[in-house]
Amino acid sequence: MNYPTIEDAIGRTPLVALQRIGSEMLRARGNVILGKLEGNNPAGSVKDRPALSMIKRAEERGDIKPGDTLIEATSGNTGIALAMAAAIKGYRMVLIMPEDLSIERAQTMKAFGAELVLTPKSGGMEYARDLADKMEKEGKGRVLDQFANADNPRIHYETTGPELWEQTGGRITHFVSAMGTTGTITGVSRFLREKNPAVRIIGAQPSEGSRIPGIRKWPQEYLPKIYDPSGVDELVLVGQSDAEEMCRRLAREEGIFAGISAAGACWVAQQIAAQVENATIAFIVCDRGDRYLSTGVFPA
C-alpha cells in the first residue's frame, strides 16, 4: 500500500466564513468574507506551495540535484517552507534573513536543518537579496529566487486558484491578498480571471512607515519580476496598527490565530465589503499567529 507523505499534506486548505467581525455590515449588504487557512499547511504557511514547487521543478529540469546547496533571501515564511522542502528532498539550505525578524521564524528554520545568515536590519530585504546573488556568483550554492521564479506563481495558478473557485462554487467576486513576493496574487489572479474576468483582485500593501511582516511595497528596482500589475485591479494601503489590531480580533472574535500580514488582508477585505453588495470576498490567511508571539502583537 502506498501511504501519503508529508508532501501530500500541502494544499487543499479550508476556506472558512467570518462569523462575528463586521457581521452586521456584512448581513446588511449581503456580503460574505472567507479566509483561506494556509496556516494549515505542514510548515505553517502559504509558502509551502511554491517552496516545494520550485525545488521539484528545478530537479525535473536538471538544474539541481539532492545534495546541492540552495540559497534564498527570505523574510520568514518562504524560508521556513524551503527549509522543510529541502529536508524532504535532501538539500543543504542556506537562508539569508534580516536580523530583526521574529525569533520563532529563525528557530523554526533551524529546526528543519537550515543554516541562517543574518543581515543588518538597516538593509532590509533588499540587502538580503543582494547578498544571496553575491553568494551564488561566488559559487556557494544555487539561488531559487522566489522573486523571479515562474514556478512560484505557477503553483498558485495550478492549486490555490482552482481551490478557491471550487470552494466558492464559482461565486467568488473579490480576491484579497497581502503582497510580498507577489506569487500568490499573480498566480491566483491569472486563474480566476480565466474563469471569470469580472472577479476583482485586490492587493494589500503597507502604508508609509508601517512594518508588517510579509507585506512589502518594493522600490522599483527590487519589484519582483514575477509580478504582473495587469492582474491586480486595486492596491489598498493598510497601516501597521490596523493590521495588528485585526490580528488580535481574528483570534479573540473568530478563533482564527493568524499572522499580521493575513490580518492586513482581512482588514482590506472588510474595507471592500463596506463598499459593495452581494459579494463573496476571499482573502488569504497566509500563516499562523504562533510565529509572531515574540513581536508583542498579542497581549502577554
Give a description of the structure:
With 300 residues, this protein is α/β, with parallel strands linked by helices. The chain has 2 domains: 6-42 and 159-285, Rossmann fold; 47-143, Rossmann fold. It has 9 helices and 10 strands. The chain is globular and about 60 Å long. The model has no long low-confidence stretch (mean pLDDT 95).
- Tell how many strands the DSSP assignment holds: 10
The overall average pLDDT, rounded, is 95
Helix segment tally: 9
Helix share bin = 25-40%
Structural class by helix and strand composition: alpha/beta
CATH topology of the largest domain: Rossmann fold
Strand order of the largest sheet: 1-2-10-7-8-9
- What's the architecture of the largest domain, going by CATH? 3-Layer(aba) Sandwich
The CATH class of the largest domain is identified as: Alpha Beta
The global form is globular
Rg on CA atoms, Å: 18 Å
Cα separation of the termini: 47 Å
The largest pleated sheet is described as:
6 strands, mixed
Low-confidence stretches: none
Give the H and E element order.
EHEHEHEHEHEHEHEEHHE
- Strand content is 15-25%
Binding site for pyridoxal 5'-phosphate: 77, 180-184, 261
Cofactor: pyridoxal 5'-phosphate
Family: Belongs to the cysteine synthase/cystathionine beta-synthase family.
GO biological process, one term: cysteine biosynthetic process from serine
